[in-house]
Specification:
With 265 residues, the protein is an alpha/beta fold. It is built from 10 helices and 10 strands. It has helices at 39-50, 88-92, 96-111, 131-138, 166-173, 175-184, 190-196, 208-220, 224-237, 242-260, and strands at residues 7-12, 15-20, 23-28, 58-63, 119-124, 127-129, 141-145, 149-151, 188-189, 201-203. The strands form 2 sheets. Strands 1-2-3-4-5-7-10 form a 7-stranded mixed sheet, sandwiched between helices. Helix 1 packs across helix 3 (96-111) and helix 9 runs antiparallel to helix 10 (242-260). The protein is globular. The protein starts with 6 loop residues before the first strand and ends in a 5-residue tail after the last helix. The mean pLDDT is 94.
Length: 265
């Protein structure tokens, strides 16, 4: 529900974006279908990222109802597909270039959550399956309820996870465990998710909102520029050598010190 102090930015195609001061909330709003996903929803998620005011520091992603998102709407696999959209069967008949361009457009809904100027938190309850799992993986942090059920079911359907979830999954849990989770399609529940690093925090379902509020407040307590620089350092760490990371740390700290001294550009 939108609070009295929040501003409704848009509400369409199963996505609602509200902003309250430095916090934006993106809500999946089709609980009757367990927030199943479609190309229209992905375009709305992409628009949400593009619509964020510059004042936003934290973005919270949540799903209405008992499930975060049960994944791709199975209507995508029917010959009819979605109204006004090419069916997946039609896409498969197109050229490699056309298919690549369409998938790249879909992926945009899953990529902006890791922008360096924001910290994103997925508040996950119930099912987070397939595209739902990958959407949660798109965020920087995950707070989960004790009824959460993560699963990567694409391989079981003869497909691969292609909505940007494979890179963060491997980064969080390692190659071997990521392969096992994807290849078997099994459920990962709250206790295991927290233990292996998929979840930052696991709490009882009725404490999920409070835990997200507490984490948001803690993130907002630090100066914004310091958080941005730290996030950029950590995001680049795996692609740098130890020595290169030392250099990056020194450069980032020099920028911070100059800014604090009023000597920045």
């Amino acid at each position: 529900m939108t609070s009295l102090d929040s501003v409704l930015v848009f509400d369409k195609d199963g996505v609602r974006l509200t902003v309250e001061d430095a916090v934006a909330t993106v809500t999946l709003t089709n609980p009757a279908k367990r927030n199943a996903q479609s190309p229209a929803l992905w375009r709305a998620l992409t628009e949400a990222g593009r619509s964020l005011p510059g004042s936003v520091r934290v973005v919270v992603l949540r799903g209405e109802g008992k499930s975060f998102s049960a994944g791709l709407d199975r209507q995508a696999f029917t010959p009819e597909g979605f109204d006004g959209e090419p069916s997946f069967l039609d896409l498969a008949r197109g050229s490699d270039e056309d298919l690549d361009a369409v998938i790249a457009e879909y992926q945009e809904a899953f990529t902006w959550w890791r922008r360096s100027d924001i910290v994103s938190i997925a508040a996950v309850q119930g099912h987070a399956i397939g595209a739902g799992f990958q959407l949660a993986l798109g965020c920087d942090l995950r707070v989960v309820a004790d009824d959460v059920q993560f699963a990567m079911r694409e391989t079981s359907l003869g497909l691969v996870p292609d909505l940007t979830g494979t890179h963060p999954l491997v980064a969080l849990v390692g190659y071997a465990r990521a392969l096992e989770i994807c290849a078997t399609g099994r459920f990962v529940h709250a206790q295991e998710a927290e233990r292996i690093g998929l979840a930052n925090i696991a709490v009882p379902t009725d404490e999920l909102d409070g835990a997200v509020r507490d984490l948001t407040a803690a993130l907002l307590s630090a100066p914004r520029d310091a958080v941005i620089e730290t996030k950029a350092l950590l995001q680049g760490a795996t692609g740098r050598s130890y020595e290169d990371q030392r250099v990056a740390e020194r450069a980032a700290q020099a920028r911070r010190l100059r800014d604090l001294a009023g000597l920045g550009d």
